[in-house]
Amino acid sequence: MIKKSLVTLHIIILSLLSTNALSQTYTEDSIAVKAILDSNELYDITVEEVTDTSDGRIVVLDLTSKGVNTIPLEIGKLGNMKDLELGFNNLTTLPKEIWNLTNLVELDLNDNNINNIPYEIGYLVNLKILDLDYNNINTIPAEICDIINLESLDISDNIITSIPSNIGNLINLANLDISYNNLDSLPEEICMLNNLDQLNLRHNNLTDLPDSIVNLVLYDPEVQVRLNVDYNKLCSLSVDVKKWVDTYSDNRDWEETQECDISIISKYKNKNNDYKILFNPGNCSIKLDIFKSGYVKFEVLDLKGRSIETLIDFYKQEGKYNISLNNYKYSSGIYYFKLTINNKTFIKKAVVIR
Q1: Which CATH number fits domain 1-112: 3.30.200.20, 1.20.120.1200, 3.40.50.1820, 3.80.10.10?
Q2: Which of 53, 70, 111, 241 is 20 to 30 A from residue 207's alpha carbon, by CA?
Q3: Does CATH place domain 115-259 in 3.80.10.10?
């Protein structure tokens, strides 16, 4: 009986010690969070309001839209944290201690005034979701591509001019949003992201896409937007790349959004299957596919509909033709391409921008 009582007492003591240990670690976590709140004069917010716990440790800290201006070094004491939400605040820099939170799975820093992401971000090896959109970041460190578990990367609405060439290391990346930046090219390695479902390139200065991008299969049909290339300068894509964009783009009229010297639909095929026109402002040529032989006349008209140049005016067999166009003869303004085939007329608008 005495032995049984001693065993029971031993279990109780161990339980109390364990409970005390958990209580102590939670207290340490709470002190760290309280330091963060106090440093931002958020005295009316309790620790419990902005945190979630698991096994007695703080694993979620949500300070979204709390007017946070600074993150003190105490953040580094939250070693069990998995989700850190700091979006919609006024942060300009981050303490180096934040990069010690190697258990982080999600980090949200969107809508701040951060202008630099240090190379230490590569230490967050368990990160799966990283939101850096709406900041003032101009350079993405190559070390970000060491986070091989990353599944979603949003760096949109910054002033980024280039993407690290080792981006192909992100083999688990499913969502990449680099829209609204200053990119004029993409590294060939982006074509190695074989798990990609969504790619947003909207509003950049891209003039071309890598040829091997056609090997990317954005294969999730349930994703509403798989590819967006609107508002770039993609005026001279190869046939295969253009076909790839047509396949995955959420906007069927993406070509109309491109900013070119002559801004028009780059491919047009009329419903009667008479012809297809491929305009290539990059080298000032027009590719004309005629599917029915006959008399063909191709004219350039001014805004009032007056013919100012005739490019073709004779019988053509069905086939493919290249037409040279010297667009430098035209001042800025609105023009029309008028195509007549066997007494049927088709007109497309063109805009020349100088």
Answers
A1: 3.80.10.10
A2: 111
A3: yes
